[in-house]
User: Which sequence fits this backbone?
């Protein structure tokens, strides 16, 4: 049956299996993205979460290049998501790997942002295009009280800072329309969560993928 990442990832890391699983996942993601394109869907950027253990491997960028070449996927359609805590472990190696990914055209995302201790200097220097606000800040938007008020200030500050640094902001864990509307007013660029969809198989994702004719039939957006 279905097993949540919170259950199997710690076990896979403890058993030393997370690295081969991670390499398999990147290869499968690249092949699936190409398969959707061959079916006539427009290219969409596919984000892959990467374990800190996997990202820290000296050959990580090589593995990504290999997956792209084997699948034929254009690097611009792949995103690699790393957690904020990874920056604190070995900044020099992380920076080198991020620069290699940038050089080949793969975008990088800083996941669970706001829960760690990222320095503004890191965000300015590292080639990270997107910040994902941790869901813990989003869930309180449906509540009231001092926690909600402080999180509103934090989200608004993160959005303002990110936009000054020319980075994109994504809010995680959005489950209600009220949260979505709130985040939009606070300056978030994108949102993800159960409001839009539960986890899906590759087959289920197809109903969300655009075709060229869909865009051609869409009404013009007024300037």
Assistant:
């Amino acid at each position: 049956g279905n097993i949540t990442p919170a259950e199997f990832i710690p076990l896979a890391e403890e058993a030393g299996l997370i690295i081969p699983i991670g390499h398999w996942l990147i290869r499968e993601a690249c092949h699936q993205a190409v398969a959707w394109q061959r079916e006539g869907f427009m290219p969409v950027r596919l984000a892959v979460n990467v374990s800190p253990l996997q990202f820290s491997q000296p050959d990580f960028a090589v593995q990504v290049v290999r997956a792209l070449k084997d699948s034929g996927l254009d690097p611009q359609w792949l995103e690699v998501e790393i957690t904020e805590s990874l920056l604190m472990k070995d900044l020099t190696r992380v920076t080198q790997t991020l620069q290699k990914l940038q050089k080949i055209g793969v975008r990088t995302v800083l996941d669970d942002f706001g829960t760690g201790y990222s320095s503004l200097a890191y965000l300015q220097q590292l080639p990270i295009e997107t910040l994902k606000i941790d869901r813990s800040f989003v869930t309180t938007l449906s509540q009231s009280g001092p926690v909600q008020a402080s999180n509103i200030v934090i989200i608004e500050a993160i959005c303002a800072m990110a936009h000054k640094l020319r980075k994109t902001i994504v809010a995680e864990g959005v489950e209600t329309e009220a949260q979505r509307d709130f985040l939009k007013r606070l300056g978030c660029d994108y949102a993800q969560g159960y409001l839009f969809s539960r986890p899906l198989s590759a087959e289920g994702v197809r109903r969300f993928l655009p075709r060229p004719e869909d865009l051609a039939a869409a009404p013009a957006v007024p300037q």
In short: The chain has a mean pLDDT of 89. Strands lie at 46-49, 78-83, 107-113, 130-133, 168-171, 190-191. The longest strand covers residues 107-113. The chain is about 50% helix and 10% strand.
